[in-house]
């Protein structure tokens, strides 16, 4: 009898240990860049004073459990856990737990373009006409300082034919169409393996990165392209010092081609590219809410990387006159930007900007004489206004301007288009898409987004003006008899997000008038300013659902 009782005791004990291992929630999962509903929720929560004001939101993904002391980053307000009665939810982990395990949310995102590609910051999805679907899910596990996040992605692309011209037939590697029919893509997605020590983390990752303060665009790093394999050394929460807080990330990555470019047939251009880049943010203690930062990125073909300093070129001087001892016998492309974000918590508002250059000045005289040479920038502001007698509900207004095309300085000295490079033929791309601003080389955009928001829920409208590759237009087409033939997309959209128990829902319906699509010149008659037959209508739709376990 005693043996049977002992046996049952051990079996129950083992069962309990198993359940604790399986269902205990981890403490350092990242909220993937671009995750519908939740990313916007966290940034709004900071402006409302609900989460730590020392977090910059300029180096993402964010380890929400670390920086915001949450048990589950996918249920920050605990409304889902409180509304469920599944047994394992009562088992909670802590940052000191030896073992942790959690199933990550399953997400199904869909996109449709009726006439031609539109939309960006969608990761594994590609610019295409027709229907696309992206599914992702996985698990997170922790054992002491070791953390493993496996979140692969799978995409189906209908990729129907549409009228186009491939303006990047030379370079960079930005195909107008990825193949000639439907196909599927698979990726490691938002997966990583890390060792965490306090506020620091080192590991191998395939996650998308987003650097800078922009909402719609980022100059150097965004989720426009698929995630790329990289080594990372970064903070997972702000490093606090007597002067203020620091956040940083240093990556060494592998950039690959699309497979749909003529560059594949050139042996010396078929190699993958090595990317070394960093982002650094400082929050001065004496100016609450202010974040200032710096990013810098270098890329070169893998076959050209031979010495240690080739792998870590961060100390190459900015001024070309100082580079004699750093000159390299191979081509290397570099981009850099400075940025700032100022969050006014009491006013529930923020203002931000990012300013970048892709061709460094020769010396200080050159810098001050032509500060706009090779520049690009973005600027934005957000304001949340509480509804009368409903303090939990707000109207959120955001305005953002992004200017990628060359400045007027091109008339004196051509800087080349952003994300191009004469020696790195693929440009600043990964698998055929720009790593930075999704609107692409030479483009400019202005947007206004006004929404009602309450917790996870939102409903609003977006107005957008997008000038497609103005650098190409001015170089290859230009004004005809003084009349502009620019390709300009004017669009209006309604969008929303909702939560119901363990579901997060998101949707967007966008209606686009592409004026002078593909810079058409058909039916042109001298002296005629506007030819409506050159306009096309395009519908861009998004629909997604996320299931939280």
State the share of residues found in helices, binned by percent: 10-25%
- Main beta sheet: strand number and arrangement? 18 strands, antiparallel, barrel
Mean pLDDT: 87
Rough outline: globular
Ends apart, CA distance between termini? 41 Å
Domains counted in the coordinates: how many?
A: 1
Q: What is the CATH third-level topology name?
A: Porin
- Overall strand count: 25
Q: Helices and strands: which structural class?
A: mainly beta
Name the beta content range: 35-45%
Oligomer: single chain
Low-confidence parts: 13-26, 84-95
Rg from C-alpha positions?
A: 25 Å
In CATH, the homologous superfamily goes by the name Capsule assembly protein Wzi
Top-tier CATH class: Mainly Beta
> Could you say what the CATH architecture is?
Beta Barrel
Number of helices: 7
């Amino acid at each position: 009898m005693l043996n049977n009782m002992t046996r049952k005791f051990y079996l129950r004990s083992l069962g309990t240990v198993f359940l604790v291992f399986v269902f205990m929630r981890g403490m350092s999962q990242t909220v993937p860049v671009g995750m519908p509903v939740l990313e916007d929720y966290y940034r709004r929560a900071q402006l409302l004073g609900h989460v730590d004001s020392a977090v910059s939101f300029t180096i993402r993904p964010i380890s929400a459990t670390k920086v915001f002391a949450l048990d589950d980053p996918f249920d920050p307000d605990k409304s889902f856990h409180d509304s469920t009665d599944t047994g394992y939810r009562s088992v909670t982990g802590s940052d000191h737990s030896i073992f942790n395990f959690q199933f990550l949310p399953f997400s199904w995102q869909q996109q449709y373009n009726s006439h031609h590609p539109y939309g960006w910051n969608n990761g594994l999805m590609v610019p295409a006409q027709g229907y696309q679907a992206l599914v992702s899910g996985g698990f997170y596990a922790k054992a002491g300082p070791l953390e493993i996040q496996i979140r692969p992605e799978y995409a189906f692309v209908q990729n129907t034919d549409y009228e186009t011209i491939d303006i990047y037939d030379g370079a960079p590697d930005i195909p107008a169409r990825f193949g000639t029919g439907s196909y599927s893509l698979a990726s490691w997605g938002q997966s990583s393996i890390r060792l965490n020590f306090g506020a620091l983390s080192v590991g191998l990752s395939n996650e998308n990165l987003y650097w800078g303060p922009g909402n719609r665009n980022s100059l150097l790093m965004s989720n426009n392209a698929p995630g790329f394999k990289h080594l990372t050394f970064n903070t997972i929460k702000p490093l606090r010092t007597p002067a203020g807080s620091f956040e940083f990330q240093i990556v060494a990555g592998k950039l690959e081609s699309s497979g749909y470019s003529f560059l594949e047939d050139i042996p010396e251009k078929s190699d993958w590219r090595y990317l070394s880049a960093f982002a650094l943010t400082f929050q001065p203690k004496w100016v609450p809410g202010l974040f200032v930062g710096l990013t810098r990125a270098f890329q070169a073909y893998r076959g050209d990387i031979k010495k240690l300093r080739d792998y870590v070129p961060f100390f190459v001087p900015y001024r070309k006159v100082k580079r004699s001892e750093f000159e390299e016998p191979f081509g290397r492309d570099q981009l850099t930007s400075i940025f700032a974000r100022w969050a006014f918590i009491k006013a529930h508002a923020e203002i931000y900007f990012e300013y970048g250059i892709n061709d460094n000045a020769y010396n200080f005289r050159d810098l001050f004489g032509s500060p706009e040479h090779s520049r690009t920038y973005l600027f934005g502001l957000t304001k949340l206004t509480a509804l009368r007698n409903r303090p939990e509900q707000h109207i959120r207004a955001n305005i953002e301007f992004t200017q990628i095309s060359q400045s007027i300085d091109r008339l004196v000295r051509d800087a080349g288009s952003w994300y191009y490079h004469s020696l790195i033929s693929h440009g600043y791309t990964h698998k055929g898409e720009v790593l930075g601003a999704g609107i692409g080389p030479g483009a400019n955009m202005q947007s206004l987004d006004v929404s009602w928001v309450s917790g996870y829920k939102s409903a609003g409208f977006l107005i957008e003006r997008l000038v497609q590759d103005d650098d190409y237009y001015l170089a290859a087409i230009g004004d005809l008899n003084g009349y502009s033939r620019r390709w300009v997309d004017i669009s209006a959209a309604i969008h929303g997000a909702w939560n119901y128990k363990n579901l997060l829902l998101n949707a967007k319906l966008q209606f686009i008038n592409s004026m002078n699509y593909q810079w058409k010149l058909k039916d042109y008659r001298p002296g005629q300013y506007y030819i409506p037959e050159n306009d096309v209508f395009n519908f861009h739709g998004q629909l997604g659902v996320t299931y939280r376990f």
